[in-house]
């Protein structure tokens, strides 16, 4: 069944698509976390669990032929029945429920909009390397293999009421329980009147990119390629909306299902802890704590900006930077809200001015959520872990609404959608 010619982009729009899903006995064995949360060891563990785990598609390795290999794997799984396309286009209801977790939202084709349109708001900078990687993967496979995560202030409106009604009263297409004891369930909305109701509610709203900035930047790059090709084929004629004017997304009403915002810590392998502390002492107040737990408790209670440095053993809290020196380092053109963020102070002052290094992927590694893992990595690399408090959601929203972006890897919203529940192929749209 072809995808209906409605709705088209213009406002916040979620279009139905023919989802591609795994046809396996235990879905939990073939789904995964988002690609940028998976380590090399984690990828091997996922493939040891099931040879057809989706990680084989989203992280196909480092070989120069890896993107073509992902394409061939995808085609093989489709031809062999490991993956099967749904008969009818749908918008999917997705529920995550477990200890301390309940989130429901909608998975569909979101209509793409540039930042200047103020429909889909980015809040975080992106790096060219990950965008190039995801662009090569999407271009080669002609697929969106995992959804981005969008939040919108729906105020519990018609779309959310329909989502909740479906989750409470209809049998799911599939369900799976992952190792973290979170149950994932999926329903399909195929009725055109229900899809129209969703979009009537969504169209006037705005969405914040909670997770997937690099993938959204990739969506926009694919759209630009599509428009350029259409212009070359028919100069002066507006391109007809197509598959590359949309991207796979999970859309969650943050009023009904408030997100969990966690910290992303840094590890600097080339900076020994003693040296980090000696340099920081020129501009920061430093207090020592006997254990990581004591230090983290002090960090949580500290006024921002504050950082906890450790490489195992004692932990050292940095607070109260010299204000004159800090003010000189922070960009005057930025808003006061942006200049006060702990990640902004890190990338504009602590890293370059105090430690003499840039905030790039080669010099600074990131560890999501897990302070102990960051400290282990620092100890193993002879470097320093820089542990941070999570940003406040109101600060992130204020910065995004001001058309600014927080520094890279400033936020980790959750719960993130599991990858592999539903995939999107361009040639099925």
UniProtKB/TrEMBL annotation:
Pfam families: DUF1015 (PF06245)
Name listed for the protein in its UniProt record: DUF1015 domain-containing protein
Organism of derivation: Streptosporangium pseudovulgare
């Amino acid at each position: 069944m072809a995808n209906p010619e409605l709705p088209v982009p213009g406002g916040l729009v979620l279009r139905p698509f023919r989802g591609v899903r795994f046809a396996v006995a235990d879905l939990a064995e073939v789904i995964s976390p988002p690609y940028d949360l998976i380590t090399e060891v984690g990828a091997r563990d996922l493939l040891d669990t099931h040879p057809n785990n989706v990680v084989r598609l989203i992280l196909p390795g480092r070989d120069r032929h890896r993107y073509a290999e992902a394409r061939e794997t995808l085609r093989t799984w489709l031809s062999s029945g490991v993956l099967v396309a749904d008969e009818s286009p749908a918008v999917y209801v997705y529920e995550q429920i477990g200890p301390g977790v309940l989130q429901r939202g909608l998975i569909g084709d979101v209509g793409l909009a540039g930042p200047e349109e103020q429909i889909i708001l980015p809040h975080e900078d992106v790096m060219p390397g990950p965008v190039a990687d995801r662009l090569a993967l999407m271009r080669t496979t002609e697929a969106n293999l995992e959804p981005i995560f969008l939040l919108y202030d729906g105020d519990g409106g018609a779309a959310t009421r329909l989502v909740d009604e479906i989750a409470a009263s209809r049998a799911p297409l599939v369900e799976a329980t992952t190792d973290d004891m979170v149950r994932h369930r999926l329903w399909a909305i195929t009725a055109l009147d229900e899809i129209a109701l969703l979009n009537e509610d969504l169209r006037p709203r705005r969405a914040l990119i909670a997770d997937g900035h690099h993938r959204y930047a990739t969506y926009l790059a694919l759209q630009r390629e599509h428009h350029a090709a259409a212009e070359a084929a028919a100069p002066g004629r507006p391109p007809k909306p197509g598959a590359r004017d949309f991207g796979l997304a999970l859309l969650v009403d943050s009023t009904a299902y408030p997100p969990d915002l966690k910290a992303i810590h840094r590890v600097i392998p080339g900076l020994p802890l003693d040296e980090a502390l000696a340099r920081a002492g020129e501009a920061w107040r430093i207090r020592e704590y006997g254990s990581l737990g004591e230090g983290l408790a002090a960090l949580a209670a500290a006024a921002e900006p504050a950082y906890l440095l450790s490489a195992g053993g004692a932990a050292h809290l940095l607070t109260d930077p010299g204000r004159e020196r800090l003010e000189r380092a922070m960009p005057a053109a930025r808003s006061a809200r942006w200049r006060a963020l702990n990640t902004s102070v890190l990338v504009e002052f602590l890293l370059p001015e105090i430690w003499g290094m840039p905030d790039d992927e080669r010099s600074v590694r990131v560890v999501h959520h897990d302070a102990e893992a960051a400290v282990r990595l620092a100890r193993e690399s002879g470097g320093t872990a820089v542990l941070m408090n999570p940003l406040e959601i109101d600060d992130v929203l204020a910065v995004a609404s001001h058309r600014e972006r927080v520094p890279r890897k400033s936020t980790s919203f959750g719960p993130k959608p599991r990858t592999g529940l539903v995939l999107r192929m361009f040639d099925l749209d």
